TrEMBL record:
It comes from Glutinoglossum americanum. It is an enzyme of class 1 (oxidoreductase). The chain holds residues 104 to 480 of 501 of the full protein. GO terms for cellular component: mitochondrial intermembrane space. This is L-lactate dehydrogenase (cytochrome). GO terms for molecular function: heme binding; L-lactate dehydrogenase (cytochrome) activity; metal ion binding. In the C-terminal section; belongs to the FMN-dependent alpha-hydroxy acid dehydrogenase family. In the N-terminal section; belongs to the cytochrome b5 family.
Length: 377
């Protein structure tokens, strides 16, 4: 169907689901165990009520803001996600093309299906990327990769270290799909030769997630990993996968080495029943609000509407990531499908702001939301 007949992110997901392979769908859609965190990610936003103010001039409305000091057209960025070429041949470069049109930041996954050089090659002037790192057991591989990223620092402006995945989550949709079909080879840019081969006896039926995880280091710590990373790069560092106020506070003690955190449960794909980002936001507001002044706080998981984005911003998030939604956009219509996704979100954010009586992102704050329904959790 023509992309302009797709009116919301659910429409786009439905079309993508029809168009991509079952195996790709299973990998993208899947989440851990019973998909409870995945479901709550979205439901938590739906349970927050908005508190619109009236009789305010909203003739002009501006969605632009800054993330880590970089001007962006909207507070939404694209979360790092593996294997975009399973959705469309243009892969992560297709997502980059769409982000360029909206001046949106894209985080490139360690497990991207194209090289970082290919992904940033045709970027718009001034377009900003981040690089998401999974540290490898063979540290020299990560060091080599980071030295490539350093050479792309005119486009890749920060490193995002993902910490919520020291082991792959139990994703049964992905696993079932892998047992059905002969495993199509999915390898990340750091994987080559020996360490990345499926273990003996797996019979080629290892799931995509488990395949991509091979070689990833499970032994990272605050003490050892941050100093190592600082030696490898001068780029700003943000930490992804913070799920408690305790860890948000710990991260803030590492400022300015650490410049930001992403509250995320990995789209519900790692530990099932881990909290939605918005719960962690509320915890931080309650127990360690100073975190918001020391670090930029971004969130992801379950974003499907402009109102979800606005609610997160009201509670102190500065950036809001979309993971699956970008992949569904790519699956539904290649780069133009991702553009449509961003266009819908931007329009919905604008409408929400106007109806709240707000005309700039900086005005958003807790007085515009009622979070009572999710506070008992
Ligand atoms: C992810 N995510 C992810 N995160 C990360 O740090 N590195 C990665 O390689 C991946 N890969 C990945 C693949 C796929 C298919 C998905 C769906 C997700 C997690 C991602 O960055 C983000 O946290 C979630 O996707 C956000 O939730 P939503 O927007 O998908 O609900």
């Amino acid at each position: 169907p023509p992309l302009d007949t797709l009116l919301n992110l659910d429409d786009i997901e439905r079309v993508a689901t029809r168009q991509i392979s079952h195996k790709a769908w299973a990998y993208y859609f899947s989440a851990a165990d019973d998909l409870i965190s995945k479901r709550l990610n979205n439901e938590a936003y739906r349970s927050i009520l908005l508190r619109p103010r009236i009789f305010i001039d909203v003739g002009k409305c501006e969605t632009s803001t800054t993330l880590l000091g970089h001007g962006v057209g909207l507070p939404v960025y694209v979360s790092p996600a593996a294997a975009a070429r399973l959705a469309h041949t243009t892969g992560e470069a297709g997502i980059a093309q769409a982000c360029g049109k909206f001046n949106a930041i894209q985080l490139i996954s360690t497990n991207a299906s194209m090289t970082p050089e290919q992904i940033v090659k045709d970027a718009a002037s001034g377009q900003v990327f981040g690089f998401q790192l999974y540290v490898q057991v063979e540290q020299s591989k990560s060091e080599a990769l980071l030295s490539r990223i350093n050479k792309l620092s005119h486009k890749i402006k920060f490193i995002c270290l993902t910490l919520d995945a020291p082991a792959p989550g139990n994703r049964e949709h992905d696993e079932r799909a892998s047992n059905m079909a002969a495993t199509q080879s999915v390898t990340s840019i750091v994987q080559s030769s020996s360490t990345s081969k499926p273990p003996e006896g797996s019979g080629g039926t290892i799931s995509i997630a488990n395949q991509l995880f091979l070689g990833t280091d499970s032994r990272l710590t605050w003490k050892t990993t941050l100093p190592w990373l600082r030696k490898q790069t001068n780029l700003p560092i943000i930490l992804k996968g913070i799920q408690t106020h305790e860890d948000a506070h710990l991260a803030s003690l590492h400022a300015p080495l650490v410049q930001g955190i992403i509250l995320s449960n990995h789209g519900g794909r790692e530990l099932d029943t881990a909290p939605p980002a918005v719960h962690t936001l509320l915890e931080i507001r309650k127990y360690c609000p100073e975190v918001f002044t020391k670090l930029e706080v971004w969130v992801d998981g379950g974003i499907r509407r402009g109102t979800d984005v606005v609610k997160a911003l009201c509670l102190g998030a500065r950036g809001v990531g979309i993971g699956r939604a970008a992949l569904w956009g790519l699956g539904a219509g290649g780069p133009e499908g991702v553009e449509r996704t961003l266009e819908i979100l931007k329009a919905e954010i604008e409408t929400c702001m106007r109806l709240l009586g707000v005309t700039s992102i900086s005005e958003l704050g807790p007085k515009y939301v009622n979070t009572r329904a999710i506070e008992h959790l």
